[in-house]
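re: ur question from yesterday

yeah so i grabbed the chain u mentioned. its 391 aa long if i counted rite. heres the sequnce exactly as i have it in my notes:
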Amino acid sequence: MEFQELVDEIVTRMRGQQLRSGVISQPRLKTETAGKIKLKPVEIKGVYHIQFESHFDQTLRHKNYPLEEVEEAVAACLEQYRQLQLVWAGETVHIQLSKKKKVSIKRTENDEQAPTVLSHNRKKNYVLDPDTIHPFLVHLGVQAKDGKIKNQKHDKFKQINRFVEFVEDSLAYLPTDRPLKILDFGSGKSYLTFALYHYLREMKGYEVEITGLDLKKDVIAHCEKLARELNYEGLHFKVGDIADYNDAQQVDMVVTLHACDVATDLALGRAVKWGARVILSVPCCQHELFTQLESPALSLMTRHGLIKERFASLATDSIRAQVLDLVGYDTQLVEFVNLENTPKNILLRAYYTGATPKPEMIVETKAFLEFLQAKPYLVRELDDQLKGVLT
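ran it thru and got these C-alpha coordinates back, copy pasting raw so excuse formatting
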Protein backbone atom coordinates (compact mmCIF):
# COMPACT_ATOMS: atom_id res chain seq x y z
CA MET A 1 0.00 0.00 0.00
CA GLU A 2 1.27 3.47 -0.88
CA PHE A 3 1.38 6.30 1.66
CA GLN A 4 -1.48 8.29 0.12
CA GLU A 5 -3.58 5.13 -0.15
CA LEU A 6 -3.11 4.64 3.60
CA VAL A 7 -4.23 8.21 4.31
CA ASP A 8 -7.26 7.75 2.07
CA GLU A 9 -8.26 4.48 3.74
CA ILE A 10 -7.99 5.91 7.25
CA VAL A 11 -9.94 9.06 6.37
CA THR A 12 -12.63 7.09 4.53
CA ARG A 13 -13.16 4.78 7.48
CA MET A 14 -13.20 7.67 9.93
CA ARG A 15 -15.80 9.45 7.81
CA GLY A 16 -17.75 6.19 7.79
CA GLN A 17 -17.74 6.44 11.60
CA GLN A 18 -15.96 3.08 11.98
CA LEU A 19 -13.29 4.26 14.42
CA ARG A 20 -13.40 2.82 17.92
CA SER A 21 -10.04 4.03 19.19
CA GLY A 22 -6.47 4.59 18.05
CA VAL A 23 -2.91 5.31 19.16
CA ILE A 24 -0.27 7.05 17.06
CA SER A 25 3.26 6.64 18.46
CA GLN A 26 7.01 6.60 17.81
CA PRO A 27 7.57 10.21 16.69
CA ARG A 28 10.26 10.73 14.08
CA LEU A 29 11.45 13.91 15.83
CA LYS A 30 11.39 14.35 19.61
CA THR A 31 11.46 18.15 19.60
CA GLU A 32 8.07 19.72 20.33
CA THR A 33 6.33 16.52 19.25
CA ALA A 34 3.88 14.61 21.44
CA GLY A 35 5.15 11.23 22.57
CA LYS A 36 1.92 9.70 21.37
CA ILE A 37 -1.54 10.71 20.20
CA LYS A 38 -4.73 8.92 21.18
CA LEU A 39 -7.73 9.00 18.88
CA LYS A 40 -11.39 8.52 19.65
CA PRO A 41 -14.74 9.61 18.22
CA VAL A 42 -16.72 12.20 20.17
CA GLU A 43 -19.93 14.08 19.58
CA ILE A 44 -19.86 17.83 20.20
CA LYS A 45 -23.10 19.80 19.93
CA GLY A 46 -24.59 16.99 17.93
CA VAL A 47 -21.70 16.84 15.43
CA TYR A 48 -19.41 13.81 15.03
CA HIS A 49 -15.71 14.63 15.59
CA ILE A 50 -12.44 12.74 15.92
CA GLN A 51 -10.58 13.77 19.07
CA PHE A 52 -6.76 13.88 18.93
CA GLU A 53 -5.33 13.68 22.48
CA SER A 54 -1.62 14.58 22.36
CA HIS A 55 0.56 13.31 25.23
CA PHE A 56 3.55 15.53 26.05
CA ASP A 57 5.94 15.05 28.99
CA GLN A 58 3.75 16.70 31.58
CA THR A 59 0.60 17.76 29.73
CA LEU A 60 -2.25 16.54 27.58
CA ARG A 61 -3.65 18.59 24.71
CA HIS A 62 -6.95 17.92 22.97
CA LYS A 63 -8.12 18.98 19.55
CA ASN A 64 -11.38 17.88 18.00
CA TYR A 65 -11.75 17.68 14.21
CA PRO A 66 -15.05 17.50 12.35
CA LEU A 67 -14.97 14.86 9.63
CA GLU A 68 -14.48 17.36 6.81
CA GLU A 69 -11.20 18.51 8.44
CA VAL A 70 -9.81 15.17 9.56
CA GLU A 71 -7.81 14.39 6.39
CA GLU A 72 -5.26 17.13 6.95
CA ALA A 73 -4.80 16.10 10.60
CA VAL A 74 -4.31 12.42 9.69
CA ALA A 75 -1.81 13.21 6.93
CA ALA A 76 0.19 15.47 9.25
CA CYS A 77 0.39 12.74 11.91
CA LEU A 78 1.53 10.11 9.42
CA GLU A 79 4.32 12.46 8.32
CA GLN A 80 5.54 12.78 11.91
CA TYR A 81 5.07 9.29 13.39
CA ARG A 82 6.17 5.75 12.55
CA GLN A 83 3.54 3.57 14.23
CA LEU A 84 -0.27 3.43 14.43
CA GLN A 85 -2.76 1.11 16.02
CA LEU A 86 -6.32 1.73 14.86
CA VAL A 87 -9.26 -0.17 16.27
CA TRP A 88 -12.12 -0.14 13.78
CA ALA A 89 -15.48 -1.81 14.24
CA GLY A 90 -14.61 -5.44 13.45
CA GLU A 91 -10.90 -5.02 12.75
CA THR A 92 -7.70 -3.90 14.49
CA VAL A 93 -4.93 -2.56 12.26
CA HIS A 94 -1.23 -2.24 13.20
CA ILE A 95 0.74 0.03 10.87
CA GLN A 96 4.49 0.71 10.61
CA LEU A 97 5.90 3.48 8.43
CA SER A 98 9.57 3.46 7.37
CA LYS A 99 11.71 6.55 6.84
CA LYS A 100 10.82 6.41 3.16
CA LYS A 101 7.10 6.02 4.03
CA LYS A 102 6.98 2.36 3.15
CA VAL A 103 3.79 0.98 4.70
CA SER A 104 3.59 -2.33 6.60
CA ILE A 105 0.16 -3.42 7.83
CA LYS A 106 -1.06 -6.24 10.05
CA ARG A 107 -4.82 -6.75 10.29
CA THR A 108 -6.68 -8.83 12.88
CA GLU A 109 -10.38 -9.31 13.47
CA ASN A 110 -12.00 -8.06 16.66
CA ASP A 111 -15.43 -7.91 18.24
CA GLU A 112 -15.51 -4.15 18.66
CA GLN A 113 -18.68 -2.34 17.66
CA ALA A 114 -18.83 1.28 16.58
CA PRO A 115 -19.92 3.42 19.55
CA THR A 116 -23.50 4.60 19.29
CA VAL A 117 -23.38 7.25 22.03
CA LEU A 118 -20.53 9.75 21.75
CA SER A 119 -21.67 12.85 23.60
CA HIS A 120 -19.38 14.33 26.25
CA ASN A 121 -22.41 14.13 28.55
CA ARG A 122 -22.90 10.43 27.95
CA LYS A 123 -22.89 7.83 30.69
CA LYS A 124 -19.31 7.19 31.82
CA ASN A 125 -17.76 4.44 29.71
CA TYR A 126 -15.97 2.42 32.39
CA VAL A 127 -13.44 -0.26 31.50
CA LEU A 128 -15.26 -2.51 33.98
CA ASP A 129 -18.89 -2.33 32.90
CA PRO A 130 -21.07 -1.46 35.91
CA ASP A 131 -23.92 -3.43 34.34
CA THR A 132 -21.85 -6.63 34.29
CA ILE A 133 -21.38 -8.90 37.29
CA HIS A 134 -17.67 -9.13 38.12
CA PRO A 135 -17.15 -11.96 40.65
CA PHE A 136 -14.12 -10.34 42.28
CA LEU A 137 -16.10 -7.13 42.90
CA VAL A 138 -18.93 -9.17 44.44
CA HIS A 139 -16.48 -10.97 46.74
CA LEU A 140 -14.87 -7.66 47.71
CA GLY A 141 -18.25 -6.13 48.53
CA VAL A 142 -18.25 -3.50 45.78
CA GLN A 143 -21.07 -5.13 43.84
CA ALA A 144 -24.15 -6.88 45.20
CA LYS A 145 -24.83 -10.41 43.96
CA ASP A 146 -27.15 -9.02 41.30
CA GLY A 147 -24.31 -6.84 39.98
CA LYS A 148 -25.54 -3.51 41.32
CA ILE A 149 -22.81 -1.24 42.66
CA LYS A 150 -23.44 -0.76 46.38
CA ASN A 151 -24.31 2.81 47.33
CA GLN A 152 -21.35 3.26 49.65
CA LYS A 153 -18.93 1.77 47.10
CA HIS A 154 -19.44 4.05 44.09
CA ASP A 155 -16.23 5.99 44.84
CA LYS A 156 -14.31 2.74 45.20
CA PHE A 157 -15.72 1.51 41.88
CA LYS A 158 -14.59 4.75 40.19
CA GLN A 159 -11.14 4.41 41.77
CA ILE A 160 -10.81 0.82 40.54
CA ASN A 161 -11.77 1.82 37.01
CA ARG A 162 -9.41 4.77 37.05
CA PHE A 163 -6.59 2.44 38.04
CA VAL A 164 -7.49 -0.03 35.29
CA GLU A 165 -7.37 2.85 32.78
CA PHE A 166 -3.77 3.50 33.82
CA VAL A 167 -2.99 -0.20 33.39
CA GLU A 168 -4.63 -0.11 29.95
CA ASP A 169 -2.39 2.80 28.96
CA SER A 170 0.65 0.76 30.04
CA LEU A 171 0.09 -2.27 27.81
CA ALA A 172 2.30 -1.02 24.98
CA TYR A 173 5.31 -1.07 27.32
CA LEU A 174 4.86 -4.62 28.59
CA PRO A 175 6.36 -7.76 26.98
CA THR A 176 4.01 -10.12 25.18
CA ASP A 177 6.29 -13.13 24.64
CA ARG A 178 6.22 -14.46 28.22
CA PRO A 179 4.14 -14.32 31.40
CA LEU A 180 4.12 -10.90 33.05
CA LYS A 181 5.67 -10.69 36.51
CA ILE A 182 3.99 -8.02 38.64
CA LEU A 183 4.52 -7.00 42.27
CA ASP A 184 2.08 -4.97 44.33
CA PHE A 185 3.84 -3.63 47.41
CA GLY A 186 1.56 -2.74 50.32
CA SER A 187 -1.41 -4.40 48.65
CA GLY A 188 -3.70 -4.04 51.69
CA LYS A 189 -7.26 -5.17 51.02
CA SER A 190 -6.19 -5.58 47.38
CA TYR A 191 -9.15 -4.08 45.52
CA LEU A 192 -6.78 -2.86 42.85
CA THR A 193 -4.65 -6.01 42.87
CA PHE A 194 -7.68 -8.15 42.05
CA ALA A 195 -8.73 -5.60 39.42
CA LEU A 196 -5.26 -5.76 37.89
CA TYR A 197 -5.43 -9.55 37.61
CA HIS A 198 -9.00 -9.52 36.31
CA TYR A 199 -8.20 -6.97 33.62
CA LEU A 200 -4.93 -8.49 32.41
CA ARG A 201 -5.84 -12.17 32.64
CA GLU A 202 -9.63 -12.40 32.32
CA MET A 203 -10.24 -9.48 29.97
CA LYS A 204 -7.02 -9.25 27.95
CA GLY A 205 -5.78 -12.84 28.09
CA TYR A 206 -2.25 -12.14 29.33
CA GLU A 207 -0.37 -14.82 31.22
CA VAL A 208 0.45 -13.16 34.54
CA GLU A 209 2.17 -13.87 37.82
CA ILE A 210 1.05 -11.23 40.33
CA THR A 211 2.23 -11.11 43.94
CA GLY A 212 0.62 -8.88 46.56
CA LEU A 213 2.85 -8.06 49.52
CA ASP A 214 1.70 -6.64 52.86
CA LEU A 215 2.60 -6.79 56.55
CA LYS A 216 -0.92 -7.56 57.82
CA LYS A 217 -1.15 -11.33 58.21
CA ASP A 218 -4.95 -11.45 58.53
CA VAL A 219 -5.44 -9.31 55.42
CA ILE A 220 -2.99 -11.41 53.40
CA ALA A 221 -4.70 -14.63 54.54
CA HIS A 222 -8.09 -13.25 53.49
CA CYS A 223 -6.84 -12.11 50.07
CA GLU A 224 -5.07 -15.41 49.40
CA LYS A 225 -8.25 -17.31 50.29
CA LEU A 226 -10.28 -15.10 47.98
CA ALA A 227 -7.82 -15.57 45.11
CA ARG A 228 -8.18 -19.35 45.45
CA GLU A 229 -11.99 -19.11 45.56
CA LEU A 230 -11.92 -17.08 42.34
CA ASN A 231 -9.52 -19.56 40.71
CA TYR A 232 -7.05 -16.76 40.05
CA GLU A 233 -4.16 -19.15 39.56
CA GLY A 234 -1.62 -16.44 38.76
CA LEU A 235 -2.40 -14.27 41.79
CA HIS A 236 -0.82 -14.85 45.21
CA PHE A 237 -0.37 -12.88 48.42
CA LYS A 238 2.52 -12.98 50.85
CA VAL A 239 3.30 -11.43 54.22
CA GLY A 240 6.39 -9.30 53.88
CA ASP A 241 8.10 -5.91 54.01
CA ILE A 242 9.29 -4.00 50.98
CA ALA A 243 12.71 -3.56 52.59
CA ASP A 244 13.21 -7.30 53.02
CA TYR A 245 11.68 -8.65 49.81
CA ASN A 246 14.29 -10.44 47.72
CA ASP A 247 12.30 -13.20 46.02
CA ALA A 248 12.27 -11.65 42.56
CA GLN A 249 15.04 -11.39 39.97
CA GLN A 250 13.03 -9.70 37.23
CA VAL A 251 9.77 -7.77 37.44
CA ASP A 252 7.79 -6.21 34.57
CA MET A 253 5.46 -3.98 36.59
CA VAL A 254 5.65 -2.61 40.12
CA VAL A 255 2.57 -1.21 41.81
CA THR A 256 2.74 0.60 45.12
CA LEU A 257 -0.36 2.34 46.45
CA HIS A 258 -0.20 4.43 49.60
CA ALA A 259 3.08 2.95 50.80
CA CYS A 260 4.02 5.31 53.62
CA ASP A 261 6.97 7.68 53.39
CA VAL A 262 10.23 6.00 52.28
CA ALA A 263 8.45 2.69 51.65
CA THR A 264 7.43 4.29 48.34
CA ASP A 265 11.08 5.12 47.62
CA LEU A 266 12.15 1.58 48.48
CA ALA A 267 9.58 0.22 46.03
CA LEU A 268 10.62 2.67 43.30
CA GLY A 269 14.27 1.81 43.88
CA ARG A 270 13.57 -1.92 43.65
CA ALA A 271 11.54 -1.38 40.49
CA VAL A 272 14.45 0.42 38.82
CA LYS A 273 16.96 -2.25 39.86
CA TRP A 274 14.69 -5.01 38.55
CA GLY A 275 14.33 -3.19 35.25
CA ALA A 276 10.54 -2.87 35.60
CA ARG A 277 8.97 -1.65 32.38
CA VAL A 278 6.04 -0.02 34.17
CA ILE A 279 5.74 1.63 37.60
CA LEU A 280 2.42 2.81 39.06
CA SER A 281 2.72 4.45 42.45
CA VAL A 282 0.42 6.51 44.67
CA PRO A 283 2.72 7.97 47.36
CA CYS A 284 1.61 8.66 50.92
CA CYS A 285 2.91 10.45 54.02
CA GLN A 286 6.02 12.06 52.55
CA HIS A 287 7.86 12.89 55.81
CA GLU A 288 11.49 12.13 55.00
CA LEU A 289 12.30 15.31 53.07
CA PHE A 290 10.41 17.37 55.68
CA THR A 291 13.18 16.68 58.21
CA GLN A 292 15.89 17.86 55.79
CA LEU A 293 14.43 21.22 54.78
CA GLU A 294 16.78 23.66 56.52
CA SER A 295 17.60 25.88 53.56
CA PRO A 296 17.61 29.56 54.63
CA ALA A 297 16.08 30.46 51.26
CA LEU A 298 12.98 28.47 52.25
CA SER A 299 12.56 29.88 55.76
CA LEU A 300 9.60 32.03 54.70
CA MET A 301 7.72 28.78 54.05
CA THR A 302 9.32 26.30 56.42
CA ARG A 303 8.64 28.37 59.54
CA HIS A 304 4.99 27.34 59.07
CA GLY A 305 4.61 23.63 59.80
CA LEU A 306 1.54 23.13 57.59
CA ILE A 307 3.14 24.87 54.59
CA LYS A 308 6.43 23.08 55.14
CA GLU A 309 4.64 19.73 55.15
CA ARG A 310 2.77 20.45 51.92
CA PHE A 311 5.84 21.81 50.18
CA ALA A 312 7.90 18.80 51.26
CA SER A 313 5.22 16.46 49.92
CA LEU A 314 5.09 18.12 46.50
CA ALA A 315 8.87 18.45 46.30
CA THR A 316 9.32 14.78 47.20
CA ASP A 317 7.04 13.56 44.42
CA SER A 318 8.59 15.99 41.92
CA ILE A 319 12.06 14.67 42.76
CA ARG A 320 10.86 11.07 42.49
CA ALA A 321 9.55 11.71 38.99
CA GLN A 322 12.73 13.52 37.98
CA VAL A 323 15.00 10.78 39.32
CA LEU A 324 13.09 8.13 37.39
CA ASP A 325 13.46 10.21 34.23
CA LEU A 326 17.20 10.41 34.87
CA VAL A 327 17.51 6.61 34.92
CA GLY A 328 15.63 6.01 31.68
CA TYR A 329 11.91 6.33 32.41
CA ASP A 330 9.22 8.52 30.92
CA THR A 331 7.45 9.71 34.06
CA GLN A 332 4.30 11.69 34.73
CA LEU A 333 2.51 12.82 37.88
CA VAL A 334 -1.23 12.64 37.23
CA GLU A 335 -4.46 12.86 39.19
CA PHE A 336 -5.58 9.47 40.42
CA VAL A 337 -8.93 10.31 42.00
CA ASN A 338 -10.71 13.59 42.59
CA LEU A 339 -9.18 15.78 45.27
CA GLU A 340 -12.58 15.96 46.96
CA ASN A 341 -12.36 12.22 47.66
CA THR A 342 -8.84 12.13 49.10
CA PRO A 343 -5.86 14.52 49.32
CA LYS A 344 -3.60 11.54 48.45
CA ASN A 345 -4.58 11.81 44.83
CA ILE A 346 -1.31 11.93 42.89
CA LEU A 347 -0.30 8.89 40.86
CA LEU A 348 3.22 8.53 39.58
CA ARG A 349 3.36 6.50 36.38
CA ALA A 350 6.63 5.66 34.74
CA TYR A 351 7.39 3.74 31.56
CA TYR A 352 10.91 2.53 30.86
CA THR A 353 12.24 3.81 27.54
CA GLY A 354 15.99 3.71 28.17
CA ALA A 355 16.29 7.33 27.06
CA THR A 356 19.46 9.19 28.06
CA PRO A 357 18.66 12.25 30.18
CA LYS A 358 19.06 15.62 28.53
CA PRO A 359 21.90 17.79 29.94
CA GLU A 360 19.45 20.50 30.99
CA MET A 361 17.49 17.95 33.03
CA ILE A 362 20.63 17.05 34.96
CA VAL A 363 21.44 20.71 35.54
CA GLU A 364 17.96 21.55 36.86
CA THR A 365 17.97 18.51 39.16
CA LYS A 366 21.31 19.46 40.71
CA ALA A 367 20.19 23.06 41.09
CA PHE A 368 16.96 22.07 42.83
CA LEU A 369 18.69 19.72 45.27
CA GLU A 370 21.28 22.38 46.04
CA PHE A 371 18.49 24.90 46.61
CA LEU A 372 16.82 22.52 49.05
CA GLN A 373 20.17 21.62 50.63
CA ALA A 374 18.83 18.07 50.82
CA LYS A 375 19.46 14.61 49.45
CA PRO A 376 16.14 12.71 49.38
CA TYR A 377 15.91 8.99 50.03
CA LEU A 378 15.40 7.89 46.42
CA VAL A 379 18.51 9.79 45.31
CA ARG A 380 20.50 7.88 47.93
CA GLU A 381 18.75 4.59 47.11
CA LEU A 382 19.71 4.87 43.43
CA ASP A 383 23.18 6.25 44.04
CA ASP A 384 24.83 3.62 41.81
CA GLN A 385 22.39 4.23 38.95
CA LEU A 386 22.89 8.01 39.21
CA LYS A 387 26.69 7.96 39.25
CA GLY A 388 27.96 10.03 36.40
CA VAL A 389 24.61 11.80 36.24
CA LEU A 390 24.26 13.71 39.51
CA THR A 391 27.84 13.20 40.69
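noticed a couple things. Residues 19 and 88 are 5 Å apart (CA to CA). also The first strand starts at residue 19 and ends at 27.
anyway ttyl
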